[in-house]
Structure prediction request, 800 residues.
Amino acid sequence: MQPRLRWMRGRREEGVGASRTLEWIGCDDAGEAIARVVRVQGPLCTGWRRFQAVALDAEAKVVELRPAEPPDGAGWLACVGGQVVGRGAVPLAAVRAVEAALDGE
Amino acid sequence: MPATPLDKIRNIGITAHIDAGKTTTTERILYYTGMSHKIGEVHDGNTTTDYMEQERERGITITSAAVTCEWKDHRINIIDTPGHIDFNIEVNRSLRVLDGAIFIIEGVAGVQPQSETNWRLADRYNVPRIIFINKLDRTGADFFRAFATLKEKLDIVALPLQLPIGIEDKFLGVVDLIEMHAVIWDGSELGASFHIEPIPSDLEAQAKEYRQVLLDTALSVDDAGMEEYFDKGDVAAATLRRCIKTGTISGAFRPVLCGTAFKNKGVQPLLDAVVDYLPSPIDVPGISVAAGEGEEDGEYSERRRIKADPSAPFAGLAFKIINDKYGTLTFVRVYSGTLKSGDMVMNTTRDHRERIGRMFQMHADKRAEIKEVFAGDIAAFVGLKDTGTGDTLASSQDPVVLERMAFPVPVIDISVEPRTKESVEKMSLGLQKLAGEDPSLRLRTDQESGQTILSGMGELHLEIIIDRLRREYGVEANIGAPQVAYRETITRPHTETYTHKKQTGGSGQYAEVKIVFEPVARNEGVQFVNKVVGGTVPKEYIPAVEKGIKVQADTGVLAGFPTVDFKYTLIDGKYHDVDSSALAFEIAAKACFRDGMKKAGPIILEPIMDVEVTTPQDHVGDVVGDLNRRRGMIQNQESSGSTIIVRAHVPLKEMFGYISDLRSMTKGRASFTMQFHHYDPVPRNIADEIMAKSA
Prediction:
């Protein structure tokens, strides 16, 4: 599959040991970011609340996901603009969901 | 420096359920790597790794055997392990010291109980592994059904690197999903070679689908691989292999290959996978030091790890001991440093020094002398005087203690006594040596009868031990019927005070102890807490109290079985300046235990086995009915082709002689496996029987 968008690494999480990528950003030919695939994280405890599943939005703000339990193994969100258009167990599956959504536009 | 660079060494194990083809696969590996010039067969009793007489006679692996071979400039040290649960200790200790493993899954039955058990063990030791779905030539083989059981029973992300071409007697070869071509074997005879050809047209669509799954999964662990994919719409085979290796080592997924070792198909790609995806000693994080070591000033930091480095101080773990006609051989996995014959090392577990005599690289029962060992090696040492399984050998420059090994609990006892008086000493020596080799074998003397009691993992385990005693040590022994290794425990707390007083004439004895006995959760063992304040029991007498309880706990209050899973807290006591002694406190503690435990709701526990019966459909009713009669609790039934697999939890007591009953019930068409699952209280009527027998 040759992706329609140009995908590049987005934010990363630096932890103990290896860092991990939290998002991939899909840009159009003009270099404009129009889609993202985002790692679903969680559970996240804020001291007074526990969020089962969260993800970062485009401004890196933590967004609570509902339903809290993602479908089996769907650890990545496919987002176009501010909309979630699908999920995937792995980033490439979410990328395909994004590309399919764009093809359907 | 080592002759083989560290990154070209693979220390791997081959493990599976009984009869899945471990030894057969090992034989093919040795043949294709040029280490043997003819292929041995399990059924002919001439395989390399099954070298013990009992192994050859019975066609099963009893002891793990180490062999070494070369493949594509890599040195592969392989340990072939037994499949039978009774010899699980061999798998346990092998996985403990290996860097990677091949799990063989039977193509007809899929994941079987012993595979599950071994898988959990490999999880415990974080062993990276690849899966080989074997026996695809067998009637009823189904790659996809066997593959599905990986997810169902092991709950893993299994990643196929190959798809089968044909199945059963039409199994020809595999589709290689990395190179996207077909690998076809030219015949199934000894040493069959293969050729490459395009993927058959009827498999193209399926191959593309699985290739996409492979890309999706493998690239998810490697950002550079993802970028290459985004740039080109595909990735190079080398990139894909790198990603697969990363995911295999991290455990993100488990690569799956397939074939039929017996028909000589699929073994060469399996060897490629060992080299490409399983880690070298420098690819793994290194072994942890034991708890308490390497923690600085109360910091709860991650424990220190010993990395593979030939120039670092020496550290190795003794993981297996065998006694043969040449003496005691201690198998050691070298984790760091270099060691020469004649060097001195510390046994840091037992805190004494050992001189290294001769060193050997083992090839099953054959040995080649070596003068030096390096980090990453597995070698056998001769001349160690007092080193047991699980002990650490280390340089005095850095006397680390490595994480110890955990051993399973024996569930079955037999009494054994020599037939002649002359054999008494020989038997004692022989049993001690056998117990030294096998940490899952325990030896004790029954205090009442004076008989020697052997405790092991199952009937077969003990049968082999007795057979070895006869063959290797020339001891003919009378064997008692196998007995269940019952345990005793308590169900409610109780506080007991006991005063031991003997002060009539001469030097007297005086001691008083007040102890709280409490039940703890299963498998938590015996715990002691000292809460004495104000010196009512002087410090020097506390060990005597502990000793008294420990000795008395070996013979419980109901039927004389060891008492387990309880806590005792010494809260108070009294002593006499003149008449108190360690002996007096030991006697008081013993009596306090005897009186106290009787009032703490004592019960007898029995081992419950996880039993899996594979039976043809028309005998399911008989099998289930019979298991129910044996106090079994049916857990589930599932069909696998034309057979039904019945899983049940059944008390071990009811399983003696089960194989002959099962055979007669099913005209020899059913088989079963069982392994220890947990201890449960025995029903009242059976407890009464047990107590009456012991009275």
User: Anything to note?
Assistant: Helices of chain A lie at 91-104. The longest strand of chain A covers residues 33-39. Chain A touches chain B through 14 residues (CB under 8 Å).
